[in-house]
Specification:
Layout lengths: L1 H31 L6 H21 L4 H28 L8 H21 L5 E2 L11 H4 L4 H23 L1 H11 L1 H6 L4 H27 L1 E2 L3 H16 L4 H21 L5 H15 L14
Antiparallel strand pairs: 1-2
Length: 300
Amino acid sequence: MEYFLELFMGGLTRGSIYALIALGYTMVYGIIELINFAHGEIYMIGAFTALITASVLAVMGVHQFAIMAIAMLAAIVYSSAYGFTVEKIAYKPLRHAPRLSPLISAIGMSIFLQNYVLLAQTSDFLPFPSLIPDFKFLEPYSNYLRPTELVILLTTAVVMVFLTLLIKFTKIGKAMRATAQDRTMAMLLGVNVNRVISTTFVIGSALAAIGGVLIASHIGQINFFIGFIAGIKAFTAAVLGGIGSIPGAVLGSFILGLTESFATGYVSSDYEDVFAFALLVLILIFRPGGLLGKSTTQKV
């Protein structure tokens, strides 16, 4: 039973990180129907920003709690700036182009950011400091839940609540929902659609940065390629739950994380991707819109 609980909590941890990234995919798609394949690289850039910031602060002798807070803030700000810039450079000029054009632009931006970090840093794995302080909590649970995993779960829960309140009760959240429902009508009613789209990219990038810092601190190493792998998994989770649905992205992320964790624990780590993508195929066969997605009918 203890082994099962250990795998279960590990799956929730994976799912939490996937959810933070998948939300960026599903928010952007819900508003402009674009798959932002460069989103995983924003996650990676956030982790590298935190690493550089933490290294400088450690040399200066700053307290660990301050290092964690400042490194996280720097990652959020820097990644948000990248998300904003990517939208303006790679996507906005192609907003009225055929759908294939922004898709190719997204893939190109992903490759560009990967190689940019590769040239600026290194192709080797770099050690990442443990920004989350080690602490003790209830003894029965400490056997299968590490402090870093607990912080990841709690942080993800807080972010989910904050994002839900933002979208439901704030002015920008209402503008996002209006733009997602009908962009043209939202413009006619005075909604600044360009600002809404930019804000969506900024929020999604900030969430990805939080995930990048947390998982890098949990694993203890990073390299330039981590964004591609995490991005593909998060995109899979978003499609699994229903691309464009925020609750679907969260649900799909936890299902994917648990599937990978149990496949690794009870079968083999070599098959975790096989089980994850097989589950995706089955869901899409029997429910093409995803678990919480809505099937749309297009007139020809």
